[in-house]
Amino acid sequence: MAIAMHWSCLSLFLPNAPSYSSSPSGGASLPGTANSFVSFSGLRATSASSSSHGFFAKKLWSLEKTRILPVIECLVKSLEPTTHTTKVQRNANLAKLQGGYLFPEIARRRNAHIQKYPDAKIISLGIGDTTEPIPGLITLAMEARAHGLSTLEGYSGYGAEQGEKAMRVALAETFYGGMDIKDNEIFVSDGAKCDIARLQLVFGPDVSIAVQDPSYPAYVDSSVMMGQTGAFRKDVQQYSKIQYMRCSHENDFFPDLSSVPRTDIIFFCSPNNPTGSAATREQLKELVAFATINGSIIVYDSAYAIYMSDNNPRSIYEIPGAREVAIETGSFSKYAGFTGVRLGWTVVPEELLFSDGFPVRNDFNRVMCTCFNGASNIAQAGGLACLSPEGLKAMNKMVSFYKENTAILVDTFTSLGFKTFGGRNAPYVWVQFPGRDSWDVFGEILEKSHIVTTPGSGFGPGGEGFIRASAFGHRENILEATSRLRKLYL
Amino acid sequence: MAIAMHWSCLSLFLPNAPSYSSSPSGGASLPGTANSFVSFSGLRATSASSSSHGFFAKKLWSLEKTRILPVIECLVKSLEPTTHTTKVQRNANLAKLQGGYLFPEIARRRNAHIQKYPDAKIISLGIGDTTEPIPGLITLAMEARAHGLSTLEGYSGYGAEQGEKAMRVALAETFYGGMDIKDNEIFVSDGAKCDIARLQLVFGPDVSIAVQDPSYPAYVDSSVMMGQTGAFRKDVQQYSKIQYMRCSHENDFFPDLSSVPRTDIIFFCSPNNPTGSAATREQLKELVAFATINGSIIVYDSAYAIYMSDNNPRSIYEIPGAREVAIETGSFSKYAGFTGVRLGWTVVPEELLFSDGFPVRNDFNRVMCTCFNGASNIAQAGGLACLSPEGLKAMNKMVSFYKENTAILVDTFTSLGFKTFGGRNAPYVWVQFPGRDSWDVFGEILEKSHIVTTPGSGFGPGGEGFIRASAFGHRENILEATSRLRKLYL
To answer: A96, A123, A153 — which closes off a domain?
Structure first.
């Protein structure tokens, strides 16, 4: 109410003042980015005759007098007792964040496009959102579990915060066979992104982090939120205190570790989102050695491991010594279309110790118990079905389908003369637009072809000049997208 | 590996040294509480001949020489290169936490009891875990949604991080009709406990908090984790920097606000867990006025609102002015037996503003988008069914059943001469054991009657001398429990 009042006041004297509105995704958003918000507490607390309010006050008095009266009335109105501001200071860490989280921002632009072209058939190669139905044997298991909850025998209440034992055992056997990962080192969760935030709670505000550049934005954003970083530096498009490890085609998308300063935490995603590259065994050995020597902890995001075509490791624990330096997180989202069902996991080996010898696993367990209450039991029933022999077959079939999509996209962009990367080991194609602003390219493809992509710079400054095309889509949509892209770029 | 080595070394010369084992719930735990862990890095890095290791070194050399050799061998072994400790400092905030989270600790003691009495039929009046099957019309909706996910028409991927629109609308209409709460002010989540942790991420490390004493432990624990508190003070059993607002039968379980210093955040739970009391309209008016004058934010936990028998407010938004000072969180866990399904919500009104005028809602939205990915779509289908007219009827029937259990428990304890509180407006009975240590009472009831309760001091120092009996249970178990309690205390 208070804010709405102020914006409506402003719109009286600022011809192009934005109006307060809810974002299409339903969350509150102020015009522009979240951080473009301007505090009006000064304006509110004093009379309009004060000249101490810089821009707004000057603007105010430079307007014709006929428009002043309603402004003053409005300001007086805003002084009514219904206007209340708490005395709680906004969290300075959240205030550091630049704009909204990447994917809701893309959804916002997509929705704006729909408003502009209500009849356009938009195709999304943007957010990596699965489109193919979940194999029936997996949904059947969830139906059975849901039905069971209505019976005396099948009902269960709170599950273990760490996940159901059977699920942990199955994950250990299926994905970590021969890697000496025990079921009690695996924590089942509602997704890898959520686990990354919980890991940040474990690490706390005082750790230093490194990320691949470009990288999945949740690492950086959760780090900023926890207060691990300094301010955003517009000149280099980086937060201070974060080490951005440049990964480009020039270094085979693997950072030059000899030039990376030591950090406490190293976020590393392979197969990589967004570049689609995958680290080789030799590269991962180098990474583990680097972490071991530096006493760092690797957070290894393997959410796309199942998409691996080449003979690269699918888990960091294939590398000797990794148990003592690495956490690994995984997800059913892109394995079985569980993006909406929500199921993931995180491995924290017993041997991973803080500098005082305290097991990291114990603190992660504490955070899981205090800030989480276990993944949905119905989702876990689905996960268990995924890990049955038939489930694995069905998942692999789905993954093969998406990989065909990826090949189609690679062919299309290549035939149009674009240099592409990735696509073999991940459902993402990284397409180069040399010298161009990636948001501009995003806008161009959306405007002219009604196709949503993801601008590379959304993943960090190292993504500038690229867009990411996601291979998740019905085949006819992928084919239609390629045909539109041919029209646009041939 | 490294740690196991050290414990086994120790057990050679410390007769009662604990052995390293996993907790029954599967998470890692070291002997005693998480914080009783002793760092052995010094011992590890130096030879056994050094006398600088205080207690352990002295103990070592005071033992007979025949036992020394294997110890030295063991220490040498532990210097092998497989022993690795990272250089990442443990988060000092997590290190402040006393023991494990309350309910896993109770589960641990329950499991130890099972080990001791494998044939005992344990009855749980402990953790407030629902026992009655979910009404069929609600599970049917979840089955239908799960099945739909296997079809082209019914499949959906990522949902909005804030929850499905229909769900938000239904929550607004059902629980906030006439209170001017809009659907876009409601965020659907995987539960109230998880939302409390996310709210703490919004507030950050620099806020001050107040809690009812006793209170649900997640408020305090998440506050400690975020670094909002000082160390734990053993003498008063409180964390410094937290205001503990004593709520006892002497003040009608409502704090004397005239003696409570201003804090940024006030956690307030009504109907209350654990005391079972509910604040009256007048009391809540006082609370809202207190927050308004102080510029504080109330986090109002209404997870038990549906259990209200008296004519007290079910939502803080029934109080004029609350929209500008209060967040409210709710849950389907105790409404529809969703403790394992996971579904809750949090309301953050537009008018709730930080001191600089920035909407709290925008920051909560940012945290939900960055650290969460929406509640499971299947759970949301269940939630929507809960809010249908038939669903509401079914939920109320279930709640009535648990309320009958509560009445049985109240009658039993009263007839045994105990003073009880709560029970009318919440599924919890707060039973007084004057002058007794509540963990002792917990142990006595478990040992002699095989009944799990919750010790009052687990909810804060104000809970000392009480136990909480939860009314969630099959009727025959509740009756059996009362018969055992009669045997124990008559």
So the answer is: A96
Tokens of A391: 């489930």
Confirm if A271 and A304 have CB atoms less than 8 A apart.
yes
User: Cβ(B269)–Cβ(B215) under 8 Å?
Assistant: yes
A336 touching B, CB under 8 A?
Answer: no
CA dist B229 → A167, A286, B210, B246 (Å): 36, 40, 11, 18
Q: What angle do CA A149, A152, A155 make, to 5 degrees?
A: 30
Contact A342 B295 (CB under 8 A): no
The count of structural domains within chain A is 3
Residue A443's closest CA among A434, A435, A454?
A: A454
Q: What CATH number should be reported for the domain holding residue A207?
A: 3.40.640.10
Distance CA A337, CA A335 (A): 6
Backbone angles phi, psi at A325, to 5 degrees: -135, -5
Please, what is the average pLDDT of chain B?
87
Q: Is residue A481 within a helix (H) or strand (E), and if so which, with residue range?
A: helix A475-489
CA-CA distance, A387 to A395, in Å (whole number)?
A: 9
Query: Which of A106, A102, A116, A132 lies closest to A477 in space, CA to CA?
Result: A132
pLDDT tens readout for residues A269-301 = 999 999 999 999 999 999 999 999 999 999 999
Q: Do B359 and B352 touch, CB atoms closer than 8 A? A: yes
d(CA B225, CA A296): 22
Instruction: Give the three-state DSSP class for A330.
Output: strand
Percent of chain A with pLDDT over 70: 83
* Residue of chain B whose alpha carbon sits nearest to that of A180: B1
Q: What is the largest CA-CA distance in chain A?
A: 80
Contacts of A146 in chain B (CB under 8 A): 139, 142-143, 146, 378, 382
Do A31 and A126 share a domain, yes or no?
no
- Looking at the structure, do residues A336 and A360 belong to the same domain, yes or no? yes
Tens-place pLDDT, residues A52-91? 333 333 343 334 444 545 544 544 444 454 589 999 999 9
Q: Which residues make beta-bridge pairs with B421?
A: B430
- A377 touches B at CB < 8 Å: yes
| Dihedral over alpha carbons A158, A161, A165, A170 (to 10 degrees) | 120
**What is the distance between the alpha carbons of residues B374 and B383, in angstroms, rounded to a whole number?**
14
Q: How far apart are CA A125 and CA A480, in angstroms?
A: 12
Cα A165 to Cα A172: distance, rounded to the nearest angstrom: 11
